[in-house]
Amino acid sequence: MTCDGELIAQWREEEAPLLPLLHSFHERDGYLSEDSIRAIAEGLKIPVAEVFGTVTFYHHFARETSGVKAPRVCTGPVCRFRGGPELVKSLDNATPMPCAGRCDEAVPVLEGGKIRVGQSIDTLETRPSPLPLSNPADFEECVFANIRKPGRSVFEGYKHTGGYEALAKAREMTPMDLRAIISESKLTGRGGAGFPTGKKWEVVAQAKGEPKFIVCNADEGEPGCFKDRAILDYDPHAIIEGMAIAAHATGATKGFIYLRYEYPDTFNTLKRAITDAENLLGDSFTLYLRRGGGAYICGEEGSLLNSLEGKHPFPRNRPPFPVTHGYNDLPTAVNNVETLASVPPIILKGAEWYRELGLGEHAGTKLVSVSGDIQQPGNYEIPLGLPLQTLLDDWCGGTTDGKSIQAVTMAGLSGGFLAGDDLDVTLDEPSIRAKGAFLGAAGIMVFDDTRDMVEVAHCAMDFFAEESCGKCFPCRIGTHRLSERLNGSAGPVGETAWLEEVRDIGITMMATSACGLGMAAPNITQSLVKYFPEQVAAHLNTSANSRQEQFQ
Fold first, then answer.
1. What are the residues whose beta carbons fall under 8 Å from the beta carbon of 506, sequence distance 6 or more?
2. Which domains does the chain have, with CATH numbers?
3. Which of 166, 191, 356, 458 is the most buried (most CB within 10 A)?
């Protein structure tokens, strides 16, 4: 067994040492003891209280002996209807965990360094994550064009299918010309924010400070989103190539892939891919892999950067922005997995080719994760501007058992619900924002006409309340108050007063929260009230009767 001093010596001089050091102790001992926390704090010269606060913030660092092996069962919005809660009760020492990114293949159970999936104890098994389904309409793809080819995930297979040709071409171009191609393609951030990628790279390139960094945000924690997992599992070299091109375009010499904890198999795939690509990357760009500890908020770029730096992963106040003051206050381009995977094909085929992949005036493609009450859940690469109904009915086969679609979520949970006539939208930001939602990372969860939408909304708000980092009180308090209103445990039961209070809480959160979590969470209650007033009224009536019975 490796001793404390050896582990600390191994990581102390590395970039972003805290997370890998915590994982090393966690895997060696099966948990993080107080002695381990003190040793890590002393070794990295970080106050013990700060390390303890950081450790306990994350979901998956066990604090009890052998805790790393205790099953954690997904009970997210899809898995809760597929046997997740029942598995928690059936498995010894099991605890629930938020959405673990296998919504297309419920229910994932995380045990140490392995994932099993199944909807009962008898069906739990280890198997690879699902490949993206074939494009049924023969639209030309960008990101998924080669992902289904055998051997694509390994270095030689990637090169055999055209991999790293874009990097070779990029290295013959000037950084300015590279940035111009990306800008002309109209590629925007595919993680949800939609910021123009070329513009971000331009600011990093012009910013003062060395070294510069490229950070791949692979902390895919939004419930109902699992598109990045598919790329990372089956096309990891596309990310490495995209990051290397981004480095050349911006002058960055170092990069990080920050991967969510719940993808242990993906971590091993990426680790092998980075090792295999080292000689090709050369000395000009050094790439590091870091695994998170389980925190939805680390998908927010400021929180992610703080996590890398070993700080408490609170969101950062902006400005300044990461493009000028990112990792260690140095210029940093934080890009999503899908964004980076789009870069090599654009360099090879050109900006105009990419723009014309979209429908109408929309540029490019978008990866969409579809799950829930649908016949063919999975990841699809669609041309931006595709009608939502075409995706759900023609590509995904409609709902199961001939039921009707009652509602879908947009942007995982963050975009709230769409229902009724508003399902007649196209999959692009202008169309969806006109209905009061947004496309974001494009996780679409489908709920058929048998689901209680107040219960679904309560599950969603419980998630936001649990994942709120606690930095700002509008989000910290507001998510809990909305959760209480949705389960009937507190607040007014009169419909007018309830609606007014829920509306006021939501408006306050949207206006004053420190980051996107608190701003987006009220979309759930606002869209619930908009589309399902009868279900809200029935819920309030039930809550009123229940409270009366308690006092009789």
1. 478, 482, 522, 525, 526
2. 4-57 (no CATH), 70-123 (no CATH), 155-355 (3.40.50.11540), 365-448 (3.10.20.600), 453-550 (1.20.1440.230)
3. 191
How far apart (Å, rounded) are the C-alpha atoms in residues 196 and 207? 17
**Cα-flanking dihedrals φ and ψ of residue 217, to 5°?**
-85, 95
As a whole number of angstroms, the distance between CA 45 and CA 344 comes to: 41
- Angle made by CA atoms 261, 459, 229, in degrees to the nearest 5: 30
First-to-last C-alpha distance (Å) of the chain:
62
As a whole number of angstroms, the distance between CA 468 and CA 481 comes to 13
Q: Are 252 and 213 in contact (CB under 8 A)?
A: yes
pTM for the model stands at 0.96
Consecutive H or E run containing 30? none
Residues 6+ apart with CB under 8 A from 442: 225, 227, 366, 367, 368, 369, 411, 427
Token pair 């995982």 is found at 412
Q: How far apart are CA 101 and CA 129, in angstroms?
A: 10
Give me Rg for the CA atoms of the chain. 23
Sole residue written with tokens 């010499």: 253
